[in-house]
Structures are given as C-alpha cells and as structure tokens.
C-alpha cells in the first residue's frame, strides 16, 4: 500500500511540474514566437550555435558572424551554452524552440524542488513546495528570456535535496554527488562556487555524531568531485587568454558596471549601469586584457569613494532582496532585460508573502532539529555576491528555491496545527526524523 501511495505522489508531482510549463509556453506562443534573442540570451544562443556548427569552442559570436574572425571568448561559464549547443545538434535550432526547451528544464526544476521539499519535511511539504514553484512567476519568467537562471534553479533544488540527504545519512556517494552539483552550478554561474564553502563544507563539518576524521574525509571527497567538473573549464581558460581567467572574462565588466557615478550617487545606486563600461577606453589584446582594464578602473573608483561603500552595499543587497527601491529595480530590469513588468510585479507580491512563510518554515525546521544549513548557505552566497557586485532580481534565482521549500514547511506546519487528527504529520513515512543524538541544526 505505501508503495502505491508513493507512486501516486510522484505522478501528482510530475503533473504539477508539467503544469508549470503552461504559463511560459503560452507566453512564448503569444509574445516570442518570432522573437530574436537580446542581451545575454543573444550571446548564449549564438555561441552555442557556433559550437554546434563546428566553427569553434567558446569563441566570441559577433566577430565570427560579422567578419569570420576567431576571437576566444569566456564571458560566461559553459553549462547553459553547452545545453543550447546540444539542442542545436539535435535539431532544436531556432530561438523560440530553445525557449520551449527551457520550459521543460524549468519543469524539471519544479519536480526536483518537490523532491527537496519531501526530503525536508514529507510528501505534503514537497507537494506544497512544487505547487508554489509552479505558480511563482519568478520561477519560470527566465524561461522565455533565454537566460541561464532556468538551469540554476534545477541545480539549486538538487543541491538542497542532496545536502539534506547527506546530513541525514553521511556517505562518500552523497558527498561526491553534492560536490558534483556544486561544481555544475559554478560552471553555470561563477558565484555558485561559493556553495562549496557555504553549503557542502558546513553540512558535513557541523554534523554532530560523526567522527571529525570522517567529516573531513567526506568534505574532501565532495571538493574533489567539484574539482572534476570545474577544472576542465578553468584549465581551458588558463590556456587561451593572456591574463589570468578563472570562470569568466565578465568579472571586470561586472565590477565596472557596479562602481561608477550613476551606481553610487544616482537613481541606479546599488545596481549596474552598462553605460559605465562604454566610457572606459579599450585596450589592445584579447578579452582578458580588456577585463583586466575594467577591473583596474573599477578598483580605482572604489578606492576613491570608500566613504560611500556602506550605503552602496546596503543598496546592492536591498535591490537583490527587494527591500530597497523594489519597483524601481523592476522597471530597470524591464528596460535592460525585457523582464515583463506585470509578471514581475505579481512575482514581487508573492515573494513578500513567501518570505514571511519561509521565515516560519525555518523556525519549524530548527525546532524539529532538521538542518537549515543549505538554506542559510544559499542565502549567504547571494548576500556576499550582491554586496561585492550589484543587486538584481534575476540573480536572486537560487533564493527562490529556498523560499518555496521553506514555504512548503511553513504551510504544512500550519495545516498540521489545524488538523483534527493528532500526530498526522509525524505519521508521514516520507519525513524521516534524525536520531536525537545525531541531530544538528
């Protein structure tokens, strides 16, 4: 009987995940069926096309398209580009068709989010989290913008799922799996490398009831597994540029966009302004040389305006987490990234509601002695990244996974309190409790 109930639960979860594709698919059919990529999506789409066509691995798409000139390019880490290149190879070539593919990757993210919720608190938590993800615009809005945040959601949900499993039953296999997922996330967005010190390491090193030697060993295995997927990209970059490049040649550009007059004193305070890099004189050399120039200019501006940094850091984190000029940020992203304003406003309202529910969910987990390390680690990673660069709703994507999972916990706890059946939640066989002597927060 439990097997049948469990099987039905997975079918319902799959149905919710597929239902999450309805809104983005309808949007593509009504708005993007003849659209052309812009911004980062333009770079992703055409660089992937060049790889699929055999023109070159990770070369700058625009010099090749316009002049047939090969220039090495590493503006973005490789995973999302390789996914699109694979799609190109199997015949999914047009931009709208790749947006449809992104919708189904988003459905996978919803499905794994449900699994993460189930691992944290049981079947009902998992289903509530999946439904919340399916109706939350911020979860699927990037699917029809052609951006890599779609697959970041998938990796983040998988990181939470495996991290909680690892905390419950530490093993070399799970440590390696978590390391691989953190490495893949870093190969999608460079700042995700912080998942290694902020999620992987604490989940194991703070695990009471486990010998220190084993904790260190499991952590080392996870780190080595991450290195297996990170090292090829880093080594490739080290071999092809004149200046040192680790994950991307975009770091200097990001710093230059974030550290200039318009982002320190004007309406874009705490955000990024592409016009700032347009005013920086180009230098001879490859992308890494220009990146170094951007970094030099940005650091000079920072050093000359250190008195403004506390205000700027507050504004950056505030923009990322929507407590500083939230509507101004949505309007700015509508202009820069073509993020639909009405959907973004709906997403903002739901974000505030889920933020409150997720706070309660975190308290519930704490009281149940279930680890909150993965959630805190992901939050810390985004705070550090926003403080060092600039804030944008799009970059908050990993935290959206934290919100929906913890919202699932919070709503489930409220329902359990109103349940006429005593102990209904504890009876859920999908919600294992950690032994008291091994439980850690």
Instruction: Give the distance, in angstroms, between the N- and C-terminal Cα atoms.
Output: 33 Å
What structural class should be given to the helix and strand makeup?
mainly alpha
Secondary structure tally, helices:
21
List the uncertain runs: 421-430, 432-441
Mean pLDDT rating = 91
Q: What's the main sheet like?
A: none
Radius of gyration: 22 Å
Shape, per Cα inertia axes: globular
Oligomer: single chain
The number of distinct structural domains comes to 1
Number of strands: 0
**H/E topology pattern:** HHHHHHHHHHHHHHHHHHHHH
Helix content: 55-70%
Describe the structure concisely.
Helix content is 69%, strand content 0%. The chain is mainly alpha-helical and 441 residues long. The C terminus is likely disordered.
Compile the SSE list and pairings.
Elements: H1 2-19, H2 22-32, H3 39-53, H4 61-67, H5 79-89, H6 95-121, H7 123-135, H8 137-140, H9 149-168, H10 172-186, H11 195-205, H12 212-240, H13 251-258, H14 261-264, H15 274-278, H16 287-304, H17 309-320, H18 326-337, H19 341-368, H20 373-388, H21 397-418
What does this structure look like?
- Helices cover 69% and strands 0% of the residues.
- With 441 residues, it is mainly α.
- It has one domain (2-418).
- Helix 2 (22-32) packs antiparallel against helix 6, helix 7 crosses helix 21 and helix 9 packs antiparallel against helix 10.
- It is globular.
- Mean pLDDT is 91; it is low at 421-430 and 432-441.
Features of this protein?
single chain, mainly alpha, disordered C terminus
